[in-house]
Amino acid sequence: MSFQELTQSELERYDRQILIPGWGLEGQKRLKNAKVAVVGVGGLGCPASLYLTAVGVGKIRIIDKEKFELSNLNRQILGYQTDLGRFKVHVAREKLKMLNPGVEVEPIVAEVTRDNVHEVVGDVDVVVDGMDNWRTRLVLNEYCVSHGIPFIHAAVSEMYGQITTIVAGNGPCLKCIFPRTPPEAEKTPVLGATPALLASLQVMEVVKLIIGIGEPLIGRMLFIDGRTMRFEEVRVEKREDCPVCGSKR
To answer: Residue 247 CA to chain centroid, in angstroms?
Structure first.
C-alpha cells in the first residue's frame, strides 16, 4: 500500500491529538498508514478497537469467532441489545465505520490457532491482545515474536488488570514472564470499566510504538488494583532459556 497523505477532513478530525508534542502531522500520517490487529472483540477488544478507530489507525483487523450474548453487554460496549445473536466482528465493523468512515475495518470470523495464525493475523504493525484465554495469548505471543511484531498484552479479572508490551529482541516475551501457563477460568468475574481502562492503556501503547513517542511498557508489567485504586509497576526480565524468544537478541 502506498503512503497516504492526510485529507482536510482528517486534519480537522485529529486536530487535538496532532497538537501533542512529538505527534504532529508526521505522527498522524504514520497512524493512517498503519495496520493493527485486535484479536478478540470482547471486554478489551471492543474499547481498544473503538479508540484505535477514533485515533485514526488506517487499517484495523478485528478477529473473533463468537456472537453477542446478553451476558456480554456489561463490558463489550460495541454490542447493543439489538445485536444479540450477531457476529461480534460484523457488529463492531458497523459501529466503527459510523464513528470514523476513513478507517478500514476488516472483520474476520475465526478462532486463532497455531494452524491459522499466519493467515488470520497476517502482516500487521501491532497486535492487541483482547483475549480471555491463555492458550490463544501464547499462540499470538509466539507468532509475534517470530515475525517481529509488537504484541500488547492485557488481562483482567474483577477490578484488577495487568498490561505489558512485548517487542521481540528488546525485552521479555509472554512466555518469559509466564513460563507455566496460568490456569484458565471457566467464567471470569469482571466490572466492565476494568477492561475499558486496560484497553485504553493498550491503545496508548500502540500509538507510542507507531509514532515513536514516549516509553512503551517493554520489560515492565503494570498491575492495576481497582479496589484500592493503586497502580504498581514491576520489572520483568527476559529468560535466556525461553523456548519462544531465548535466541532473540
So the answer is: 25
